[in-house]
Write a structure and sequence with these properties.
Layout lengths: L1 H18 L24 H12 L12 H6 L5 H5 L8 E15 L5 E8 L4 E6 L1 H7 L8 E10 L8 E10 H8 L2 E7 L5 H13 L1 E12 L6 E6 L9 H8 L5 E4 L1
Parallel strand pairs: 6-7
Antiparallel strand pairs: 1-2, 1-4, 2-3, 4-5, 6-9, 7-8
Amino acid sequence: DTLMNYGVKFQEDKNNMFASIFGDEMQSAIMRPAYPPMPLDWSKLERLNREKNLVGMYLSAHPLDEYYVFMKYACNVTLEQIAKSDLQENKDYTLACMVREVREMVSQKGDLWAIVTFEDYESSYEHRFFAKEYAQWGGFLKKGNFLAMKAKYAARNHWKPEAKSFNIQQVNLLSQEAPQAIGKLQISVPLQQIDENLVESLMQQIEMHPGNVQFRLLITDDSSRPRMSARLYSMKYKLNLTKELMEYFETIPEVGIKVN
């Protein structure tokens, strides 16, 4: 819209100049309108939201990339599975998502409740927080918040055990939950697969991602009987487990990773 308005203004000024009796002589002196003010630097989240609003999808990254490791290694359910009720009864679930939309409503009794739309990498899911739930968790349920939740798929009540629902039992900010859940990384490599290229590649990635997460190297020898292994703890390096780093580990067939 800003560019279109600028173009219209420029064309209007040009037409007005040609309409004057000096138009032919002063064509080269047409004054361009002032450039529209440019926005200040956007935050990463605002830039990504503007990308999605403009083209319907995130292009350069996803808002949840910061929590990729938590979502992949600490969570055991996706929003798509929840929406399809592809769940096991009475199983404890951990999920991570962002709040896309909150629609508050008032019941006939005057109680405030809400329909909240959550979003993860692949899907979205609407959950109804009735008065008691919304009073308990409403402080976390704000548009744009990144949340970690614990829940259970179980009967709604004792009177209708056949009626199952996804019962949210705990809500927390991902920024608080993720660091507590991700404390160590173990990289396992078979002894027979270790060579100079692999060591150089691993060291390059380790040095490129300094952070606070401890890691250890587990070297295994499957050819020995009994099977032998050695754990090497790094005293010098700690890692920032970014999406890029974890995807690097995941693409190397020889390397196994364990997060806890």
